[in-house]
From TrEMBL:
PANTHER family the UniProt entry points to: UPF0496 PLANT-LIKE PROTEIN, UPF0496 PROTEIN 3-RELATED
Species for this entry: Gossypium schwendimanii
InterPro entries hit by this protein: DUF677
GO cellular component: membrane
Pfam family, one: DUF677
Listed name of the protein: Uncharacterized protein
Keywords, alphabetical: Membrane, Transmembrane, Transmembrane helix
Transmembrane regions: 216-234, 240-262
Record's subcellular location: Membrane
Keyword Membrane belongs to the record: yes
Main location: membrane
Keyword Protein transport set for record: no
Biased composition regions of type Low complexity, renumbered to the chain: 49-59
Length: 368
């Protein structure tokens, strides 16, 4: 079953004879749309169909077009990310359980929004670079044609020039889009960093204040206890010695459990604040994880512009083809060697972001 549009990927399971249930799994990319990255979505998807066998279990048949095997893995990675819907639902439940005026409420929303934007950046980077890899097959064909053709005369290099023109026409200016996405995530992370620092400072001050008040309150409790005991002893020395003796014994026995309860209560509050501080520190660590992608995309853009300039030098400036092709071959090698590394980093970052999201959500449910 092929998807009906470039914005939705659906998997449908037809139940077997012994089963009366079925389900449908949708991943709506419109929720995480990012401009031109949604183009040619249909071209990157494998043909997928579900067929029922004679048993009650559905069977899965995947047909991958021979010319799109490199996109098949990417498509299934996107399907794996569809679990983000359930994760977002759980996140909303946890955040909605926080007090509306809580300072952590705003911080948690910003953190998870940053995680979502990071996933958008990873998906956009993967989509754009995989399309670029497909377009580079055109320029490889141009290099092959050049090697087969003789001389540098344009009449004898028609196929090479034709393929170079086709490559130039097929290229998409996606680096501007990636820069905008990466810049937005970067600004959001800078804002988060300031909020993390402010919250950590507040929690550290609160911890210090709790410890101070714990000591002061315990000292006040002990002083008040002995003051009361002395008052009763002085007031009733002559008349009710046996009563005062019993009262003093009772108060002496009571001070230990009461003091212990009082101290435990302060310690519980202190441990709760420590957990909040630890959670904030972990969130801060996980939030700062995209600079490497920004740097790699920037380096790739520089190499890619060099390749385009080499192609333009032949098509528009009339450079000798045999001289320009040497530069094109070198630039093409630089670009094709860099793209897999950026793709790997983007895929790793996407998986790490989802894992960090789940970890933070679990810690929030345990802490708050």
């Amino acid at each position: 079953m092929a998807p009906s549009s470039c914005s939705e990927l659906s998997l449908e399971v037809e139940p077997g004879p012994a089963s009366r249930s079925g389900f449908k799994w949708n991943f709506n990319r419109a929720d995480y749309g990012h401009g031109s990255t949604q183009q040619n979505w249909d071209d990157t998807l494998p043909d997928v169909s579900m067929a029922s066998s004679s048993s009650s279990e559905p069977s899965l048949r995947i047909e991958v077009r021979p010319d799109s095997r490199s996109q098949a893995e990417s498509s299934w990675n996107r399907v794996a990310y569809s679990g983000i819907d359930t994760l977002q639902y759980r996140t909303d439940l946890v955040i909605n359980s926080l007090p509306a005026d809580s300072d952590f409420n705003s911080l948690a929303k910003d953190y998870f929004d940053n995680s979502k934007n990071t996933l958008v950046l990873c998906t956009a980077t993967g989509d754009c670079l995989r399309r670029a890899q497909n377009n580079h097959e055109i320029i490889r064909l141009a290099v092959k044609c050049f090697d087969e053709e003789v001389g540098t005369d344009k009449n004898k290099s028609g196929k090479t020039l034709e393929e170079l023109k086709r490559f130039k026409a097929a290229e998409e200016p996606f680096f501007e889009e990636l820069r905008a996405l990466a810049g937005r995530v970067h600004l959001q992370q800078e804002s988060l960093q300031r909020k993390f620092n402010a919250r950590k400072g507040t929690l550290e001050q609160k911890l210090a204040s709790l410890e101070t008040w714990r000591r002061v309150s315990l000292a006040f409790f002990v002083v008040a206890f002995f003051s009361l005991l002395i008052f009763y002893v002085v007031a009733s020395t002559k008349s009710l010695k046996h009563v005062i003796t019993a009262l003093g014994s009772a108060l002496t026995l009571a001070i230990v459990p009461v003091g212990t309860w009082y101290n435990d209560r302060w310690n519980r509050n202190k441990e709760k604040e420590k957990k909040k501080l630890k959670l904030t520190t972990i969130m801060e660590f996980h939030a700062a994880c995209t600079p490497i992608i920004r740097v790699l995309v920037f380096r790739l853009e520089v190499k890619f512009k060099s390749l385009l300039h080499s192609v333009d030098s032949v098509l528009t400036e009339g450079y000798a083809l045999n001289v320009a092709m040497d530069k094109i071959k070198k630039d093409l090698k630089d670009v094709t060697d860099t793209i897999p590394d950026v793709l790997r980093r983007a895929d790793d970052l996407g998986r790490e972001t989802i894992m960090d999201w789940r970890e933070i959500l679990t810690r929030m449910m345990e802490t708050l």
